[in-house]
Design a protein that fits this description.
The protein is mainly alpha-helical and about 180 residues long. The chain is built from 7 helices and no strands. It has one domain.
Length: about 180
């Protein structure tokens, strides 16, 4: 003998089952998004490390390149025109990576710990007079927020005045 089931009971049960299914699918989508975000971060990390290794191999495997790199970091303006172009190309590659990482960090797509390491490395270069001279003279356009970030770092460390003061004795000795 069949028990009488009301239409309301069937509808209510269907709504509950449907609600549970929607919640389950949302949880699945959230999990997938989390995994995709994690994969993107890992891929980004690997890409940055590969660029760093490639740059290290390029500079470290050639004595002339290592010499140019060291001299460029010490004083960009002292390099001849071809050397400035070559050193500038190295810096452009490096700062394009820094620009990209800065953008990803601002979009909250980069871990804080990883950004701290990138920022430390970027500051290492910005603390080199030749790199600062390149930065001030380079004709390329970076993202505005990155330019403001770098300029704020240089200003906070009073590098403009320090670099100007260092130039005065050099200019006086050439007279």
């Amino acid at each position: 003998m069949a028990l009488p089931i009301s239409i309301d009971l069937i509808v209510n049960t269907a709504e509950i089952v449907g609600g549970v299914a929607v919640i389950a699918s949302l949880l699945f989508v959230a999990r997938q998004m989390h995994e995709n975000n994690k994969s993107a971060r890992e891929s980004n990390y690997i890409q940055v490390m590969q660029h760093n290794k490639d740059m290290g191999r390029l500079i470290g495997s050639d004595v002339k390149m290592a010499n140019l790199y060291r001299r460029g970091c010490d004083g960009f303006v002292e390099l001849n025109a071809d050397e400035r172009w070559q050193f500038g190309s190295l810096m452009m590659a490096m700062f394009c990576d820094f620009n990209q990482q800065h953008t990803l960090y601002n979009q909250q797509r980069l871990d804080q710990q990883f950004w701290n390491a990138i920022e430390h490395n970027m500051n290492f270069y910005l603390d080199r007079r030749g790199v600062r001279d390149w930065w001030r003279s380079q004709p390329f356009q970076f993202d505005l927020s990155f330019v403001e970030y770098v300029d704020a770092y240089l200003e906070a460390h009073n590098y403009h005045e320090k670099d100007q003061a260092a130039l005065e004795p050099e200019l006086a000795s050439k007279d």
